[in-house]
Amino acid sequence: MSVVKTADVKEVWIGDNFTYTLVITNTGTKTAKAVVVNDPAPNHINFNVSGVTTTQGSVDSSSTSKNIIVNVGDIPPAGTVTIKIPATVIA
């Protein structure tokens, strides 16, 4: 598995909104079963849980502004899933 996380901005200030993008790729030769992505927020960042999108699976109901959990499910070899997480910089 490969996970690449990027932000759509290079600099942020308190109160700024931006989006993290996670791209999860199965680099193996077998299907990855029951994949769950757990992404904790860095200090001074809150996630907007209701704005999270995923190309496969669903956002877990236990997700919070400090921790996003996505139940992706199975990813076939060379399969890719993209998760977008809106975030806000807090004091």
Automatic annotation (TrEMBL):
<protein>
    <recommendedName>
        <fullName>DUF11 domain-containing protein</fullName>
    </recommendedName>
</protein>
<feature type="domain" description="DUF11">
    <location>
        <begin position="2"/>
        <end position="89"/>
    </location>
</feature>
<dbReference type="InterPro" id="IPR001434">
    <property type="entry name" value="OmcB-like_DUF11"/>
</dbReference>
<dbReference type="Pfam" id="PF01345">
    <property type="entry name" value="DUF11"/>
</dbReference>
<dbReference type="InterPro" id="IPR047589">
    <property type="entry name" value="DUF11_rpt"/>
</dbReference>
